[in-house]
Amino acid sequence: MNVFRLTGDLSHLAAIIILLLKIWKSRSCAGISGKSQILFAIVFTTRYLDLLTSFISIYNTSMKVIYIGCAYATVYLIYMKFRATYDGNHDSFRVEFLVVPVGGLAVLVNHDFSFLEILWTFSIYLESVAILPQLFMISKTGEAETITTHYLFCLGLYRALYLLNWIWRFYFESFFDMIAIVAGVVQTVLYCDFFYLYITKVLKGKKLSLPA
Amino acid sequence: KAKNLLHDEL
After folding, report:
1. Residue B1 binned pLDDT confidence (cut-offs 50, 70, 90)
2. What GO cellular component entries does it have (chain A) (predicted)?
């Protein structure tokens, strides 16, 4: 464990909690892409099946349980409890265009052709593009609530910190996982224009509005 | 491919 990975995990946890609290407190999921949240639930489910097969640490296990629990709770709030506030018209990204190619790639490019390893690889590839429906929805509505931008900032920051973690681990532990690194770079790059808008607008107290 | 496939990261 190193400082980048720990702060990355905490940033990820913060994002998940911010979103859950935003929906719960405001009793509304306006501006939130339910499709992205379903993809994240799939990402955690396929990645953390090793909860059943291997134990790494209390921290590892508890974080995985929290991530999975919050992901499904968020999906439940969006599609069940507060479904009247779900903006399905703007959440129109065709996720099959993500899941199918990612599934195919996971079968072709992986570290080991075993069931759990292919699912882990699928989860890594899927996570790198899972935010696209959310970013697409914001581009369609042309704006985002400030709390949603904080959620996205923490979510984007987490994988950027993981990139620093992989540099650290390469240097100090001569560990590197090309699949995770490449997917992590793609994932972080997808946030770049959002990061620019967040830093130049939201941090200056303005509302995040895209040129419609 | 006996890589240590125990993924210790979240």
Report:
1. very low
2. COPI-coated vesicle membrane; endoplasmic reticulum membrane; Golgi membrane
CA of A124: which chain B residue's CA is closest? B10
CB atoms within 10 A of CB A99: 17
* Cα(A145)–Cα(A32) distance, integer angstroms: 9
A167 Cβ contact partners less than 8 Å away, ≥ 6 residues apart: none
The nearest CA of chain A is from the CA of B9 a distance in Å of 8
Calpha distance A130→A36 (Å, rounded): 6
Question: What's the full length of chain B, in residues?
Answer: 10
In one-letter notation, the amino acid at residue A174 is: S
CA A75, CA A39: separation in Å to the nearest integer? Answer: 10
B10/A60 Cβ within 8 A: yes
The runs of H, that is alpha helices, within A130-177 are: 132-141, 146-173
Q: Which helix (H) or strand (E) holds A143?
A: strand A143-144
pLDDT digits (tens, 9 = 90+) for A67-91: 999 999 999 999 999 999 999 999 9
**pLDDT tens digits, one per residue of A111-149:** 999 999 999 999 999 999 999 999 999 999 999 999 999
Placement of tokens 């292919």 in the chain: A118
- Residue among A94, A99, A88 nearest A32 (CA): A88
Cα(A31)–Cα(A140) distance, rounded to whole angstroms? 10
Give me the amino acid identity at A138.
Answer: I
